[in-house]
Amino acid sequence: MTTPHTAIENMKQIESGEYERQRVPDSKLKGWKSFLGMYAGEHAAGTEFVIGPLFLTTGVSAFDLIVGLLLGNLMAVLSWRFLTAEIGTKFRYTLYFHLEKICGKKLVTYYNVANGVLFCFLAGAMITVSATAVGIPFNMEMPQLTDTLPNGMTWIIIVLVLGVLISVIAAKGYSTVAKAANWMSPFIVLAFIASGIVALYQLEISSFSEFWNLWGEGSDPFPGQIKYTFWHVFLWSWFANAAMHIGMSDLTVFRFAKSPKLGWTTAGGIYLGHYIAWIAAALLYAVYLKSPEAQGFLSNGLAPTVAPGPLAYNALGVFGILAVILAGWSTANPTIYRAGLAFQAVLPKLSTFWVTILAGSVATIAGLFPAFAMKLLDFVALYGFILAPIGAIIVFDYFFSKKAGIQAFYAEKYNTNFNPAVLWAWLISFGVFYFISVQFDIFLSFVTLPTWLFCGVLFLLFSKYYQNKK
């Protein structure tokens, strides 16, 4: 039964066009162009200018980098297509509303806060990336690989201005975010391809064998970095967006898709961004490593700086600066949009516009601290490890609830605000595998999948126990 309060709330959602707490109507569904443009813009992004070079700092070999990325990204696309898009187009709810039906409002509130804050930190890293390009005309001192705090007033002003602009676009809603991505993505993709070609020319590489030998059998990692193998690259690239696919965050995006087949559009963004762009950015860094400045860092036992703006500027000039600015912009937009929807579930009285502005403000503050960008490999692995297991709750509830003899959408069916099965499943799976990672010094991406599976199985077992008991 619809109460007057619910009717008013639904009217507000219809007016905003976001449908935060109801199924997206068929009249509002979008075709493949919206998703292809958004994913190309989001994943051929400013952070790719950081991630590509960071792979080189780990001393990765040619086979491990090229083949590891190829297969790891394939697994990510399959995860989006057969898990996220499948469930997203079935129910057409945001992640937060869907999760609320399983967990209950009280429990999902804590998740929404954690999810929103982590997305803000990720968006902050993207603002940092754009700032390294904007700062070039002002002769701004670039952040070093080991920097944590802002390094000057110029840096602070540039980050604040970028943060305001990006937040306003994200606050306009999904349609505006998609339009912005469609406009920016061709330019960004062209810039990555061009920068890779220029870098090959600067490195005097004219054959595939010379390209392969650029990395060869790999090298020792830079100071402060760990050595990456094939499995590091494969699993990290699979779970770089774990929160979005196996973590189900992109239910929020795919609820607008006409068909689950649109999950394949992620391949456009992933292979342009997480394959071509990462390798192109690594080539840019390979050029920089031959410079006297980089050799000076290495001779002093320090890791050379990984600042995307100067790397792109050295290859493409002003065109490179614009590419880095727009690349960071296009990725921060949907990330802040997602964070705003997370905060919307915690602050339902605020409009989507203002909670997104709040998310953008947190992201801008995070962007002031370069550590989020300079330690991006570690941060992305951590945030995926934290958020992905919650996605297992949704996946196992959808695919296995009937076979396990439990009630799907338990919290909604029994009108409860707290489902203990979810809490215990996440706490135990997270605690056990985080302990294993720390105790035995295991890279977090190695234990993300076991944690996800363990969480899903525990959820079914605990649900069986609590539901039978009740």
TrEMBL record:
One of its GO terms (cellular component) is plasma membrane. The keyword Membrane applies. The keyword DNA-binding does not apply. The chain crosses the membrane at residues 116-140, 152-171, 183-203, 228-248, 269-291, 311-332, 353-373, 379-400, 421-436, 442-462. One of its GO terms (molecular function) is cytosine transmembrane transporter activity. Gene3D superfamilies: Hydantoin permease (1.10.4160.10). Keywords: Membrane, Transmembrane, Transmembrane helix. This is Purine-cytosine permease.
